[in-house]
């Protein structure tokens, strides 16, 4: 079973792909956005920082 940060990344990328393909009004995109939000909350309550989800942001020297 993946860690909470890995689940948050997986659902985040799935939601981004669904949004790019279907748009924000599509039911699947909305469901994936809700799942991504829930996974992000779980990762945050587990002690991860918001920027832990965004590797490229951290690599550019932020944080």
SS-derived structural category: mainly alpha
User: What is the percent of helical residues?
Assistant: 55-70%
Task: Please report which band the strand proportion falls in: under 5%, 5-15%, 15-25%, 25-35%, 35-45% or over 45%.
Answer: under 5%
Arithmetic mean of pLDDT:
85
Distance between the termini: 28 Å
Beta-strand segment tally: 0
How many separate helices? 3
Low-confidence stretches: none
Global outline? globular
Radius of gyration from the alpha-carbon trace, in angstroms: 12 Å
Profile the largest sheet: none
Order of helices and strands: HHH
Itemize the secondary structure elements and their pairings.
Blueprint: H1 4-22, H2 27-45, H3 55-59
Helix pairs in contact: 1-2
Structure description:
This protein has 63 residues and is an all-alpha fold. It is 68% helix and 0% strand. It has helices at residues 4-22, 27-45, 55-59. Helix 1 (4-22) packs antiparallel against helix 2 (27-45). It is globular and about 30 Å long.
Short note summarizing the structure:
The chain has 63 residues and is mainly alpha-helical.
Task: Considering the chains and any ligands shown, give keywords for the structure.
about 70% helix; mainly alpha; 3 helices; about 60 residues
């Amino acid at each position: 079973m993946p860690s909470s940060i890995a689940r948050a990344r997986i659902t985040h990328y799935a939601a981004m792909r669904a949004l790019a393909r279907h748009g924000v009004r599509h039911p699947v995109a909305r469901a994936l956005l809700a799942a991504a939000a829930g996974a992000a909350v779980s990762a945050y309550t587990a002690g991860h920082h918001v920027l832990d989800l965004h590797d490229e942001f951290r690599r550019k020297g932020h944080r």
